[in-house]
Amino acid sequence: MSKYSRKLKKLIETAPEQETAVLVALIHQHETEEMVSEHLDELAFLTETLGAKAIHRFTQRMEKPDPRTFVGSGKLEEIKAYIEYFDADMVVFDEDLSPSQMKILENELKIKVYDRSLLILDIFLKRAQTAQAKTQVELARFQYLLPRLTRMWTHLERQRGGTSTRGGAGEKEIETDKRDIRQKITLLKEKLQKIEKQGITQRKSRKGIVRVAMVGYTNVGKSTLMKLMTKADILAENKLFATVDSTVRKVVLDQVPFLLSDTVGFIRKLPTHLIESFKSTLAEIEEADILVHVVDISHPAFEDQIAVVNQTLNEMGAGDKPTIMVFNKTDLAAKMPSEEELMLMSEIEVEDASFIDFEKLERSYAKKSEITPVFISAEKGTDIDKFREILAAEVKKCHLKIYPHYLEDEVLDFSQFSEKN
Ligand SMILES: Nc1nc2c(ncn2[C@@H]2O[C@H](COP(=O)(O)OP(=O)(O)OP(=O)(O)O)[C@@H](O)[C@H]2O)c(=O)[nH]1
Ligand SMILES: [Mg+2]
């Protein structure tokens, strides 16, 4: 065997195998199996974003989670047997677990136990780029982990930090780690305060220019649209939470300049700690004059996603800003065929396709807001001009409020505004 192939063999042998995960959800009284199955699709996607593969799903119809073990004892035995047989690496619960549930489940199942919040926090940790986002996530994660610190997590955290715990962590190590974490939380809070101060100054320097924020559920195409509008090099990926940091760029439409910001996507049950520590990132939304609410129209649950976004915006106090509804990914959605087209289709074809009535949707959203909704494909560039037109008109309206004499003054010096965050 040559030196090269020996090296290659070693590489293959030591390559880490993809971790496997088992997903668990309850079906509550008001929920249908389909609804929970959709939630589990999302949980599988989140698990995948973290780098693990979901290999099985367990559901149980139950009103309230068991206070000790989340699922019932019979179900727990079933999960345990599956994990042992298939040698799964982690188990992910679609709801949040109490500190004691987490401890009990970890003792019973003997693998990494994730709940929804911890999963999202770990994804954010992996994706954060800027010092601010990193500090925010780290703070939120430590705050969440502190009361939940178990043997397993102490062990994993120490691995992450490069200190090993030989033969597993004991109660003493857990106590030491808790003290360390408390100290880290204090330091992170101080660090964040400093960064936020700079942010406030930076945002103040942008006074006098219209600000537009892109909002929406995660993975709907906000960054793709941002890229299209600014030709900037922005990461857009088929992963949940590709964007965790907000990016701000200057755009000029119809000679009117404005700032456009791409923001972190929303999701059902976003951990409260995360919202709390992302406040300054979310300030881009709070301080915006106009919101662009991007929707993935090809997603089967797009209406639920709109509701989650609206609810989050309301909670932030940004629910009544002028909003342009942008229905994206029209290339993937099946448009309602005309009567003639319908006649030519077979019954099976009609039943199989889940058509979306764009016109009905347009009418219903036109009723809710004065701004006409738009249907685009950011990926294919379809109908982007329509979006540009509507956005330019809205920006102009706001711009005239700031500079009533703008048309007479003509050229303004906008070079002072920073283009990059
Ligand atoms: N087919 C199709 N795919 C699209 C369209 N717009 C975006 N995508 C894809 O959807 C995925 C998500 O796009 P992003 O732009 O990263 O979405 P995002 O809203 O910024 O997502 P987060 O930052 O994770 O919240 C990527 O794989 C894009 O290529 C579209 O109009 N049509
Ligand atoms: Mg993005």
Automatic annotation (TrEMBL):
UniProt keyword terms in alphabetical order: Coiled coil, Cytoplasm, GTP-binding, Magnesium, Metal-binding, Nucleotide-binding
Superkingdom as given in the UniProt entry: Bacteria
Keyword Coiled coil recorded: yes
Pfam families attached to this UniProt entry: GTP-bdg_M, GTP-bdg_N, MMR_HSR1
Similarity field: Belongs to the TRAFAC class OBG-HflX-like GTPase superfamily. HflX GTPase family.
Coiled coil residues, start to end: 171-198
Domain Hflx-type G residue range list: 210-399
InterPro entries assigned to the protein according to its UniProt record, in alphabetical order: G_HFLX_dom, GTP-bd, GTP-bd_M, GTPase_HflX, GTPase_HflX_N, GTPase_HflX_N_sf, P-loop_NTPase
HAMAP family: GTPase_HflX
Keyword Phosphoprotein annotated: no
CDD domains: HflX
SUPFAM superfamilies: P-loop containing nucleoside triphosphate hydrolases
Biological role stated in the UniProt entry: GTPase that associates with the 50S ribosomal subunit and may have a role during protein synthesis or ribosome biogenesis.
Natural source organism: Negadavirga shengliensis
PANTHER family in alphabetical order: GTP-BINDING PROTEIN 6-RELATED, GTP-BINDING PROTEIN HFLX
Complex and partners: Monomer. Associates with the 50S ribosomal subunit.
Name of the protein in question: GTPase HflX
Main location: cytoplasm
Gene name of this polypeptide: hflX
Annotated localization: Cytoplasm
